[in-house]
Specification:
The chain has about 270 residues and is mostly helical. It contains 12 helices and no strands. The protein is globular. One of its GO terms (molecular function) is endopeptidase activity.
Length: about 270
């Protein structure tokens, strides 16, 4: 049964997934472009990362959870998958996949920017990348990375407690929230039938479409490729294991690597 319906009529349909995604994207656009919140977050510096955590969980996850419950959907199965606990082996595989995705993405970026890998991973990429020019798309990519909203919110921690708090807010929390919603609700819904007909997407199609939608929702064009790659890996893990937890492990590892090298002056 490649459409993923599994004969369970109590799960969201394809149309529900589209509705939810439109709510998220329109909500993000409204918050960042049509309200003072976007400029306020940029102006608040490193403290803004904590506001983003609240917005993510209270503005998107909590309403989604309330909606799912109001529809009578099995929330645990919907958000965590068929197997709530897939085993330590799958979690290790997820962490390894997240690290591998980050290594591949970083290596490709270094190669395109003409930066030796040793310098890139040593954390000197921010010095080696030349100013952006129209003929140098990779330099433009890196310039966008340096000036991103999230980049302006992250400051090097001064002690272990600050480091743990930063990791929880900038690496772990987004991974948990986004994977529950994208590889949980959205990936499930996109495999289901439509109100007006049969399913449009099989499992593999849904993994790739969900990954692209996940990347697009970040409203960050330079990160579209890397985030799509991460989304495909996370979706593949979720489908293969029957659980969203390996996808969370992959996403959290990817974020942790990016955060660690970013705080130390690295490439992402």
């Amino acid at each position: 049964d490649d459409n993923g319906s599994g004969g369970d009529d109590k799960m969201p349909l394809f149309d529900d997934g589209v509705t939810w995604y439109c709510y998220c994207v329109c909500g993000l656009l409204w918050l960042t472009d049509l309200t003072p919140l976007g400029p306020l977050l940029r102006a608040s510096g490193p403290a803004a990362i904590y506001w983003l955590v609240g917005i993510q969980w209270l503005g998107f996850f909590a309403p989604t959870l309330a909606w799912a419950r109001s529809q009578g959907w099995p929330v645990t199965r919907l958000l965590l998958g068929q197997r709530v606990w897939p085993g330590w082996g799958w979690l290790a595989a997820g962490a390894g996949a997240g690290a591998a995705v980050y290594l591949v993405v970083g290596s490709i970026m270094a190669a395109k920017a003409g930066i030796p890998l040793a310098e890139w991973w040593a954390g000197s990429a921010h010095v080696a990348v030349p100013p952006a020019t129209p003929a140098d798309p990779m330099a433009a990519f890196m310039e966008a990375e340096r000036s991103s909203v999230l980049g302006s919110m992250i400051a090097a921690p001064s002690n272990a407690l600050e480091a743990a708090r930063l990791w929880a807010c900038a690496a772990l929390s987004p991974a948990v929230c986004e994977e529950l919603l994208y590889r949980g609700l959205l990936l499930t819904a996109l495999q289901r039938p439509r109100l007006a007909g049969p399913a449009l997407l099989g499992r593999t199609d849904a993994v790739f479409v969900t990954a692209a939608l996940f990347a697009l929702a970040h409203l960050d064009l330079p990160q579209f490729g890397p985030l799509t790659f991460l989304g495909v890996a996370a979706g593949g893990l979720a489908v293969a294991s029957g659980s969203v937890l390996p996808a969370i492990a992959a996403h959290a590892t990817y974020n942790s690597a990016a955060l660690a090298l970013g705080v130390l002056g690295g490439g992402l």
